[in-house]
Please model this.
Amino acid sequence: MDGMTANDITHVVDADRAHVWHHLIQHKPFETGEPRIIVEGKGMRVWDQHGKEHLDAVAGGVWTVNVGYGRESIANAVRDQILKMNFFGGTVGTIPGALFAEKLIAKMPGMTRVYYCNSGSEANEKAFKMVRQIAHKRYGGKKTKILYRDRDYHGSTLATMSAGGQDERNAQYGPFAPDFIRVPHCMEYRKHEQDGAPDQNYGEWAAGQIEEVILREGPDTVGALCLEPVTAGGGVITPPEGYWERVQEICEKYDILLHIDEVVCGMGRTGVWFGYQNYGVKPDIVTMAKGVASGYAAISCCVTSEKVFELFKDDASDPMNYFRDISTFGGCTAGPAAALENMRILEDEDLLGNTLTMGARMVDNLQALAEKHRVIGDVRGKGLFCGAELVTDRDTKEPMHEKMVQAVVADCMQQGVIIGATNRSIPSKNNTLCFSPPLIATADDIDEITNAVDGALGRVFA
Model:
């Protein structure tokens, strides 16, 4: 807020209230109250229009600012690049585009090609279009169906919502695109809600439910399976043992492309470069966004194997054979310039190693809270991506009402700690507190976050 007077801030608040349409929020309260304005960030902390400091445990509210706020070197990289060459349409190359693609592919054995765009939703749309075009080019118009998983989220466009496993997010936006088929979730904590789920080898069984859907639909009609490596907004659901190995086998058996949505998990969030690398999976398509440049510039990528790329490259006389797609702002050079410096920071500061260490501390802290507060039914996570599911009864696992979960979030906010929670996504099951702090978090930061949750649970459920 340097250089801004109280009158300046008042003007900003008034302008925001009068003209900005915020994301994911009801605006009726702004008729009598102020919208929150975040005016500054440094490291793990942000300050609002009143100068109140907050510890950010959700990396920008939507799991994005992996390397923290105020990174001058990223700002300088973007400035220098856009002064030299800010934009050219993606039919040609740029220096940062080529160099970041090279560096990114080096972290993804088996993948070879990077298609640039500017949001996670758009990256997933590109993948869906590739699958559909392959169906027409190679399978005579068959294998157009795309499978997606209950509770997973892939974006806010109509096509990505067609592949959205969160019914409250989808409500009122249909009808959706055809040939998107849902498969069951793999949430072991709630396996009691799935008919036939076994006590042992649940992961293999859950993956087998995908095979049942494929057989029901017809393997010759299914082109791709799109999954998050760890379900994010659907409740921070870590896959059970044996799940991913069986998924890989199923895709190979039925010639189905495996599309992994790394929009949240990518760029170190789980302690490895990409979430799927925790499980030995070999995908055909990987999409990513948020942490690619830590929010310093807009960028997303749809990355493919050479096998997928080669399907669009031939000498046939048909002029329709290539991937006829463009993303205007995929041609901006600020994104890959920021991404290059973002990746250098991740490497030079060993933030993946820090993520593993601090993630283990967060899980330990949350498990200690679960021993103290019986409303915590389950703690789960991978790296600095953790969840604590709240229930009214541990024996029945009855989900806590969303209003009570949001009361915990609000109490933490009053303490100066910003945490997240599933919110208006899954009917009757928006009951998971979500934690995804920047990967620079220290032990003191983690303790401050979980201490705030401790205090909030004590007050809300007193």
